[in-house]
DNA sequence: AAATTAATGCAATTGGGTTGCAATTACAAA
DNA sequence: TTTGTAATTGCAACCCAATTGCATTAATTT
């Protein structure tokens, strides 16, 4: 079970994801709200928002955890299975609205995929 | 620059990768050789072996760092760009000798990919 | 064999993330 | 509105992978 009470801290975190459709690392999020709440609270709120299907998490290239807004997910069904893109110049991370075909692997059962493309984003490419 | 001197510790670590063609987490490697060398030494040897193109690293689903033997890589050219597979039952990780097609992304330049397939391995499938 | 310096051991430290518990606060029931 | 309750938060301590500084050891060169 995720968010039950709409606290100020929850609203603050949610607004960050509403404002701009861009993934954020937990480390960055903690920095952003460090005057408003404790880091433990940030971790717990992110956990609950993910359980509710409001945001989804994945690992960046450095192994840090990142979160981004979900599109059409719910507590019962997380449908975000897209790849992510991380820029080596500016470190920005984007959700990629595309599907990558995974060939079936003999004698293996693939339940989920974790795909990170690394390179240069639109801004840094130019 | 990677390995310069062939020490006993280097030989020990290398042999682990020669023996069996299977990826190993750093945590597991440290455990395997804990009577023979310090954990710092393990980290440093892995760094140097990777620089030399003898092994390559990637992140497992839990965020831990894993290493596996390289095939045809050298210090100047790391050609290992394959996906990896991690079993949710037994935690084993394999290098997958297959290529996954990445569609080109508008205004982005993709330099490398980090693909982890998660599911059940051959043994755990049966 | 002696000199050089890469490699190692060890203790301390860093940093992301978690846990236990007391204090606070949202919210529903009265 | 007031009260009761349990969800939420703050805080300090902790966990653990990974890194760092530095003195010591050992591989390789001369
Ligand atoms: Mn996403
Ligand atoms: Mn591999
Ligand atoms: Zn960029
Ligand atoms: Zn398995």
From TrEMBL, chains A, B:
InterPro entries: FUR, WH-like_DNA-bd_sf, WH_DNA-bd_sf. Signal peptide: none annotated. PANTHER family: HYDROGEN PEROXIDE SENSITIVE REPRESSOR (PTHR33202:SF22), ZINC UPTAKE REGULATION PROTEIN (PTHR33202). This is Transcriptional repressor. It comes from Flavivirga aquimarina. The lineage of its organism: Bacteria, Pseudomonadati, Bacteroidota, Flavobacteriia, Flavobacteriales.
């Amino acid at each position: 079970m995720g968010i039950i009470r709409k606290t100020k801290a929850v609203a603050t975190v949610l607004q960050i994801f509403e404002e701009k459709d861009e993934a954020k690392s937990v480390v960055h999020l903690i920095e952003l709200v460090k005057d408003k709440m404790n880091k433990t609270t940030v971790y717990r709120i992110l956990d609950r928002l993910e359980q509710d299907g409001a945001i989804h998490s994945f690992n960046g290239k450095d192994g840090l955890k990142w979160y981004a807004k979900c599109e059409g997910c719910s507590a019962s069904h997380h449908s975000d299975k897209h790849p992510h893109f991380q820029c080596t110049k500016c470190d920005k991370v984007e959700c990629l609205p595309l599907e990558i075909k995974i060939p079936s692997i003999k004698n293996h059962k693939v339940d989920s995929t974790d795909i990170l493309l690394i390179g240069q984003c639109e801004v840094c490419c130019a």
